[in-house]
Amino acid sequence: PVQTDNTSGNVNRITDNTNPALIVYEPEEPKKNGSSVIVCPGGGYSILAVDKEGYEIAEWLNSLGYTAFVLQYRVPKKYEGAFMDIQRAIRIVRNGANKWKLDVDTVGVIGFSAGASLSAHLSTRFTEQTYLKIDAMDDLSSQPNFAMLIYPAGLDRGENRSLTPELTISDKTPPTFIFATTDDRHANSALVYAGALRDAKIAVEVHLLPEGGHGYGMRKGNAAGETWPKLAEVWLNNLK
Questions:
Q1: How does DSSP classify residue 116?
Q2: What gap in Å lies between CA 37 and CA 44, rounded to an integer?
Q3: Which residues of the chain fall below pLDDT 50?
Q4: What is the full DSSP assignment across 123-174?
Q5: For residue 89, what is the DSSP state?
Q6: Is residue 178 a contact partner of residue 194, using CB atoms and an 8 Å limit?
Q7: Which residue, of 27, 89, 203, 204, is most buried by count of CB atoms within 10 Å of its CB?
Q8: Which among 102, 84, 53 has a CA at the least distance from the CA of 229?
Q9: Each residue of 16-26: pLDDT tens digit?
Q10: What angle do CA 79, 53, 81 make, to 5 degrees?
């Protein structure tokens, strides 16, 4: 991957990523709870905000006892490749359960903006065979056990801003936490996806704050960025 010259907002951005990678963050042993989360940074499928929506999120998850895997999926505009990458990533995590001391039945995903879109696609399209089998790892399920979508985008591309057609919600779609703000131009994605989950009787928790914009990660100084981690922590604890 290539680091871009744009570091505005004190954000490291990478692009031209043709070789997907998983960066592993392990919590201290006394805190480790056996659960894991794949972290999908955003960036409009053009770049990846790898620190603000990746490494910093992984460190937060470590503080809660979760093993985190930051996914550097293919960009720019490699939509099909990115979906292959997240499918393969969750299989790699499950395959390495003994190595990382993980429970294969508590593997979740968290995404931001485009990364949240990718997480929603995984939550609804995990049965699709998107690439030729590479090895025995690909016999493992790519179904996440839970999902967290933070200021998701691109989920309302159906007619009249309805649910994106390829997102087929079933009774296997995982419980989902959604957070956005009303002054975010992408906020309709959160509402549409939450409504579709509700209609399908999938457990969903959705929070919509009045202000915060888009792309704040969990950095200090933005009320939305300071709020969602606290709510998500409670939600995660209630999953157990």
A1: H
A2: 21
A3: none
A4: HHHTT---S---SGGGGS----SEEEEES--S---SGGG---TT----TTSP
A5: H
A6: yes
A7: 89
A8: 53
A9: 999 999 999 99
A10: 15
